[in-house]
Amino acid sequence: MYVSWDNIKDEEIVYYDGHQWLNLSILDGNYTIKGLNRYMVDFFGNGPPILFGIVEERQRTAIQLKDQYKIDLTKTKSLHKLLGFEPKVYEEPEQIGKFIADLSGGNDNIYIHCDIVEGAYTNGFHSSNVICSFTNINRPGSEIIKSFDKPLFFPVRMDSIYRIRMRITNHRNKLISLNNQEVQYNFIAL
Question: Where would I find the H helices in 72-176?
Answer without folding.
Answer: 79-83
